[in-house]
Amino acid sequence: MAAEELPSEVDVVIVGTGLCEAVVAAACSRVGQRVLHLDRRSYYAGDWASFTFPGLLSWIQEQQQPADWSSLLQEGEELVHLNQSYSSISNLQVHCYVRYSTCQESGTEPELNQSQSEPCTETEGQSEPCGETEGQSESCTETEGQSEPCGETNTQSETGNETEGQSEQRRLTLPDLVREGRRFNIDLVSKLLFSRGSLVNLLIQSNVSRYAEFKNVSRILTILNGNVTQVPCSRADVFSSRQLSVVDKRKLMKFLTSCLDENDPPTEFVGRSYMDFLEQQSLGAELRHFLFYSIAGATEDTPTEAGLASTRHFLRCLGRYGNTPFLFPVYGLGEIPQCFCRMCAVFGGIYCLRHSVQSLVLHRDSNRYCSCLYLCPCLCLTCLSPVSLLCLTCLSPLSLSSVSLVSVPSLGSGFPSVRIVELSPSTMTCINGTCEYCSTNTASTTTTPVRHLTLSVTGGPSVLWSLYFNMAASSEVEGQELPINVHMGSAPDSALGHDVTIAEKIFQKIVPDEEFCPPAPNPEDIIYDLESGGPEAPLTTSIIHTHTTFILGNVGEVSCLRTQ
Amino acid sequence: MHNSFTKLHGRVKVKTTAQQEEEKKKEREKKLKIYVAARDACFAKRKEGIKDEEALELTQQLLSSNPDFATLWNQRREILMHLETIKDEDEMQKIYESELHFLESCLKVNPKSYGSWFHRGWVSARLPRPNWVRELSLCDRCLSLDDRNFHCWDYRRMVVKMSGVPVEKELEFTDRLIGSNFSNYSSWHYRSTLLPLLHPESPDPKSSGDPPSSQAHSHRVCEEQLLKEYELVQNAFFTDPNDQSAWFYYRWLLGRADREEMISCVYVSRDEERVVVGFSRPVNVNVFILFVEVILECLAVVLLFSIVLLGTIQWSTNVNVLVFRSELSVEKTSVLQSELQSCNQLQELEPLNKWCLLTIILLMRALDPLRYEKETLAHFETLKEVDPMRSAYYSDLCSKFMIENTILKMEYAEVRVFSISDKNLTTLCHLDQLVLVTHINLSSNQLHRLPLQFAMLQCLEVLEADSNLIENLEGLYHLPNLEEVLLRNNNLQPLASCPKLKHLDLRGNPVTLSDGIEAEIKALLPSVTKLLL
After folding, report:
1. What does the entry give for GO biological process (chain B) (predicted)?
2. What is the pLDDT of residue B103?
């Protein structure tokens, strides 16, 4: 790979532009480290990226046809392999529920779609929604009431019968979506920012927040007895809630207030399920539902102490920016890593997309600094299954707000509880008349229940297009000593919030004495020293010194590390 | 060495704090110079009476950095008023519109600037073609940033008045504000002014005799709406029982009833040449004189007869039952009962909440003061414990209620003996209700004084007030019938004079220790025959 434009000497080489890597890059660059930041992809943010609709389609194609980089590998004194074709994405499925075209406007799309169409039958005929629901019939028993409307709307699209309140909305076709596609920003992972979480604090502390714009999540919803219900979580919500009795209001507020105090849970509940604990608190079933699924975001095996801790975190985040504890970046989550990259670049970091480290020079004499990367495709990875869905105008309770978080409780075995983020066009992630649903969950099951539940959420918004895939989570590289100048970043996890503490730890290992992301100075306070700031002389070969630190973003960048 | 080089290299150089400070200082000095120069120029122009647009420009510069410079706002108004005389309406419209625009920037500097808000009101009122919709939306924006900005509330009220926003719209507005944050006195209070306008109480046959003026100012709300309000406010205090604003609104909802004005008691004594008239609520002096004249005219003949025959006449009604209850309301008992139930429900969940306890006490009194006496006392004890800062207030309030109860009991028993010993009374009130009492027993309480209103007890013959903390006898004036005073174990210092006093027991008071006290008392109270020191 051509490296002639790259600097000859750097302090830190960072491979991958995911969130963790971008934060480390910004932090290092900010304190004067010379950063070379590479990404083999043609876009920023790796698995954290947000795509336009055409961008997403080509991304899908890329995942399905792994590029063969082997021909580009070079020989060196010490041969080092980097896994270029590694993909963190697996089990990718695309479902398209809209017509391919009314008139053939853009010629390439139908081909694209055919290449994805194997998993779903609907794409061939105009729509056979019943076939789809039948295929899942064993899993739909609990939600069959909800699955019907979806069938209906699909049938409608077949017959062109527009009786169901959506007549004002012209039926969208796939070419429509593609033509308007640049106005989509579809996230690969679905996350929100806790308004007092580590990421928001970091954004503020480092002034990186200047580069982005945020929306407050406007509502927290859940599915209660088959209905979409707003979860009263703030004081104002509890006050105006119509479904809670005054006594329930008091009990809920009392419980929440008591959670705010940093009390350890009663010893008898330590290690026991959070649900058991809630059941002991003389709270009604409805309140337990809210507290368990929506506020604590708990699952059946969440222990009490973890449930209480996440409740506390939720509550502490309330009120900082509005009535819910969450923020969402306008234009999608992919903005955040890019903002940090921008900060890195402002302080002299050098960026190069479509580039990756090809080989590393190994210092045989000094064990401490040598590093070497080998191919090893079979790491044991835990799986996530982020799900991206695009839906047509949503039904009643939704639509008005910009961002909602919907928690769908478990519906029995095989239907784990999931959390879905609903994004309206005001977040600049989808076009008018559509709405985006994303969900990232730890997947111990297939992806279909998630989609199925998503449909049940809104009482059947007609799904236009959907995408499912599993994403490899970061995992400890076990049994192998990392060379001390090599650090591993982290891939997106399935938690709702972001954790940037790993980035901070890496930073402290590289430059232990420096402050992590101090506030960026105002532009007028920067002294521009033209004499020493000249460009580096280009070199033909890239020399990386032993003091150089490597940060490898995703496990995808290198599947296995081994000291030689 | 290599390392240190590379670390320095490439680092963005930032000015040191000292450098920054220095620059800021210079900047400040420069600004100050400009500011002072502009101020002097403004003052000079005002002195010379120059009201031109340059002066307008100068004051604008100053005010945009310091919107609380009241003199400059005055100067600006002078100039604008002058311009009004020389410009036509369209030009003035333009000038005033730019003024409003400028004011908006001032409010951004200080959203609670008295001068800016006042000036905005002034300009809005003078604007030839005002745009009230824009003003309302400005208020909404300001209130969404700070929903307790009382300047904005004031200004908004003015805008609403000027533009005639319908009351329903305003009620919806308070709904919205309360919904987003119910800890807001302004919203609740605004609601309390709107509701009687929108949902006035349906005309009550009983109150048809009232003068029309009092109906126009009726603060009552129709029952249907009241029930909705109870529900709303309950949502607030169940959500956060420690928030006062909701409780205060609740008290307003419960306590809208005005007492009916009536005479509760008449006492006429020929020997003492006195007429005493008790009213059910405070009356002003003019009304009082009118009443006395009317009474005297109407009853003159009858009374004269009786007085000649009997020497005195007393007449009292049993209105107290109503008087004491209407502290809260004359609302249907069933409604109050259900309110009491929900408060009790809250109290079970929050046994130590003072607002809840106090409201329960008030509700109990409104319902049946005698039946709930025991509970009321227990709640007062809890209140004093959970809110020690206000324990004296609670004691006074409790005393008041105990006195009311005793008066009720006395009236039911139709006696003229008022006995309220050992009830921890800290204050005396409702003495106007005791005009006809001949024997009062206040012993073993916590009273510090006998108030001046004690002179109301025109028929009083025996006063028992042993074992209190009474310090002086200032209330014991003009009691023509007083014959016996028992003040053992008090804190008495000086003495008062009562001409008919025969029996005086002052044992255990500091005053007994002074020399020649007996002679002094004899001089002061010549008719005392039995003096115990």
Report:
1. prenylation
2. 94
Which of B14, B179, B349 shows the shortest C-beta gap to A250? B349
pLDDT tens column, A63-77: 776 544 444 444 434
Among the candidates A289, A317, A345, a domain finishes at A317
Residue B183 has which token pair?
A: 């800890």
Which CATH number describes the domain made up of B415-532?
Answer: 3.80.10.10
Angle at A156 between CA A455 and CA A185, to 5 degrees: 50
Cα–Cα distance between A340 and A28 in angstroms, integer? 11
**Percent of chain B whose predicted confidence (pLDDT) is above 70:** 82
- Reported pTM: 0.74
Q: Which of A452, A472, A492 is the last residue of a domain?
A: A472
Rounded Cα distance, A112 and A99, in Å:
14
CB pairs under 8 A between A and B: 77
Q: Which residue carries 């938690």 as its tokens?
A: A495
> What is the identity of the amino acid at B434?
L
Three-point CA angle B38, B44, B48, nearest 5° = 145
The dotted CATH code for B35-165 is 1.25.40.120
In a shared domain, residues A225 and A248 = no
C-beta separation of B291 from B282 below 8 A:
no
Domain ranges of chain B: 35-165, 181-200+219-256, 263-317, 328-363+373-408, 415-532
Residue A271 Cα to chain centre, angstroms: 29
Tokens 């307790």 appear where? B148
Q: Which of A1-15, A78-92, B143-157, B260-274 has the lowest mean pLDDT?
A: A78-92
The residues of A whose Cβ lies within 8 A of any Cβ of B are 9, 11, 31-34, 235-236, 238-240, 246-247, 249-251, 253-254, 347-348, 521, 525-527, 529, 532, 547
A330, A402 Cβ separation under 8 angstroms: no
ipTM of the complex, rounded to two decimals: 0.74
Which of B6, B179, B239 has the CB atom closest to A11's CB atom?
Answer: B6
